Amino acid sequence: MGSIRVVKSSGVITVQDLGRFGYQSLGVPVSGAMDSIALKIANRLVGNSDDKACLEFMLSGGSFRFNADVAIALTGADMAFKINGQIVPMYETLFINQDDELTGDYAKTGVYAYMAVSGGFDVPKVLKSRSTFIRGRFGGVEGRALKVGDQLPFVDVEMPAHIKMPRSLANVPYENRVVRFIPSSVDREMNARYRQIFQKNDYCIDAMSDRMGYRLAGEAIQMTGGNDMLSAPVGAGTIQVPGDGQPIVLLADRQTTGGYRQLGQIWAFDLPYFVQQSAGSCVRFHSGELSEALAALEAYDEALADFFSKAVCNHVKQCNHVNQCEHVKQCNHVKNAAPKRYRITLSNKTYNVVVRQLNED
Amino acid sequence: MNAIEIMIESESMLLIRWDAVIDIDVNRQVHAVAQGIQAAFGDSILDIIPTYHSVAVIVDPFAVSIQSLYTAVAAFVKTVAMETTSPTPRRLNIPVCYDGADMDVLCQYAQMTPDEVIRRHTAPDYPVYMIGFLPGFPYLGGLDKKLHMPRKEKPRKVIAAGSVGIAGGQTGIYPLQSPGGWQLIGRTPILLFDVQASSPSRIQAGDVVRFVAIAKNSYDAIEKGLKTWDLYAL
Containing H/E element for A78? Predict the structure, then answer.
């Protein structure tokens, strides 16, 4: 079984998948990727199903050594990732050779980056998920962030096809926007004037923000009758307003219920943009309809599905003239078509050489 | 049956809501509806969150249309005769050694002896209204009014798993080691939350909990596995 070793860890690097569902009635937080769209895309770029475990990098990329050939993909925040010192593209299948070293810097844009490996990271599942929940000290690697010396195995699978996603498609979730939310059904009329305050002012992400939630700083929202209510369910993107009037947006490691009054739920489609805003960034919010939220989510999901099905088909066509996606498995050359990377030293100078097999026909 | 509202909160959350009260009859309906939905729609939902007075149903918005689920759940809730489906609650006896670090403080505050605190704390049947705050943390109703006491002004950084405490009008058990501001009166040797177990929480919403005072030597024996304790013994 191949594996990856942590050579240097900076920021907070954890194992995450799409989250730990099914135990919220027992108070177990969902956890999972902060930016689940970036995690899904990383998985698809290496031929994985969407739910495979990836590494999540918060603010900084660390340094890793691979002990086997494997395909990887990097998505989300730009941390100027390098392989053996050479900058590598994000949103593209990368073929790694044994002993290659991957390093990442401080995030230039965004907060969270993801690395998928073909086959997925094979840490033990806890309550049906591999996601790390640091406060509960379970999931991922011993319920904690990675540290130097950790060795993470991945499941050995065949090399996937090479896929390069156009930045125009990759950037859609991060285009500048007003962050939209669906108003809470509780006290909808009574909350109208609080939503007005919330929509008319900038709210800036406080430094005291983490995977549990982002605290916002801006015009205080003081509610008549107080900001507390009987504990009620919350979700990813719930905007709650505690006693000091400064809203908090609950995120991946949120508690399952909350006792502060809620303004609404951020659109699932706008959450990746929101979580990728770093501390100090200011955001504008506006209420939006459920129907529009669903349409936006579906449109991007379809665009992704369309891109990935064509990407695999095109690859098959190139190597075997097979027109139908069902025949991917018949395409023997998919595996060989992956470029191989070599390091060659000549006269004391080291060269990175990429060798790509040409089609036989 | 009390009035129920069903609302779509987001692309992935449906909320079924009763009046915002802490009331055992309302809460029994909450759990009957939650269990009914789990049984009827378990394959198409990701999660369910029952609270004092509401139930959230969570779906994967890429797999299930929240609007179709709304229609199906609304029809389902109408047909549920909750008075008859409400199950007899499961009862748990939780052994507690009442030697907590704040026992003296509570005795002073409540103006009573430790024996009186123990008598009053072990007397009621505590309904478990919901689980939240921490994995496996039960929200219990029914604490004796004479034992109500505010939280500590400065929360402790570490509270050991199994600690039993009081905060305001509530009593509870820390299932995992955690920071917290509760007044600690005792500790149970029973592991109430175990992530490695297929059913990780020994206590579930809808249960009824009773505390049973045990001596320190019993605590040690149960903790070391030298003595067994049947949580569900009648």
Answer: strand A70-78
- Span(s) in chain B for CATH 3.30.1360.40: 5-85
Q: Which CATH superfamily is domain B91-223 in?
A: Cyclophilin-like (2.40.100.10)
For B125-145, the pLDDT digits (tens) are 999 999 988 899 999 999 999
pLDDT, tens digit, for every residue of A137-150?
Answer: 999 999 999 999 99
The token pair at B25 is 């009859």
What's the DSSP call for residue A280?
A: T
- CA torsion angle A58 A63 A68 A69 (round to 10): 70
Q: Is A218 helix (H, G, I), strand (E, B) or coil?
A: coil
Residues B30/B52, Cβ–Cβ less than 8 Å: yes
- As a whole number of angstroms, the distance between CA A58 and CA A295 comes to 30
The residue ranges of chain B whose pLDDT is under 50 are none
Interface of B with A in 17-36 (CB under 8 A): 17, 20-22, 34
Q: Write down all domains in chain A, each with its CATH number in brackets.
A: 2-172 (no CATH), 179-287 (2.40.100.10), 309-355 (no CATH)
Chain A: which residues have CB within 8 Å of chain B?
Answer: 21-30, 126-127, 135-138, 182, 184-186, 229-233, 235, 237, 255-257, 265, 267-268, 290, 293-294, 297, 301
* Mutate which: B11, B14, B157, vs A, most A CBs within 10 A: B11
- Which chain A residues contact residue B196 at CB under 8 A? 126
Residues forming CATH 2.40.100.10 domain(s) in chain B: 91-223
Contacts of A189 by beta carbon, 8 Å cutoff, 6+ apart: none
Task: Output the six-digit token pair for A217.
Answer: 């700083």
**Cβ of A290 and B11 within 8 Å?**
yes
Of all residues in chain B, the one with the smallest CA distance to A289 is B10
CB contacts of B15 in chain A (<8 Å) are 185, 232-233
- CB A230 within 8 Å of CB A261: no
**In sequence order, what DSSP letters do the residues of A284-302 get, joined into one string?**
-EEE--HHHHHHHHHHHHH
Pure H helices in chain B: 24-41, 66-79, 82-85, 103-110, 114-122, 216-223
Helices B103-110, B114-122: crossing angle, 10 deg rounding: 90
Nearest to A268 among B8, B52, B61 (CB): B61
Q: Which residues contact B59 (CB under 8 A, 6 or more apart)?
A: B12, B13, B14, B44, B45, B46, B66, B69
Q: Can you read off the two tokens belonging to residue A194? A: 């609080």
- Answer yes or no: CATH 3.30.1360.40 is held by domain B5-85: yes
The tokens describing B56, both together, are 């959230």
Tokens at residue A243, please? 């006693």
Query: Residue A328 pLDDT more than 60?
Result: no
And the tokens for A174? 């991060």
**Residue recorded with tokens 């009054």:** A261
DSSP code, position B197: S
Closest CB to B51 among A237, A257, A294 = A257
What ipTM is given for this predicted complex? 0.90
Nearest CA in chain A to B128: A26
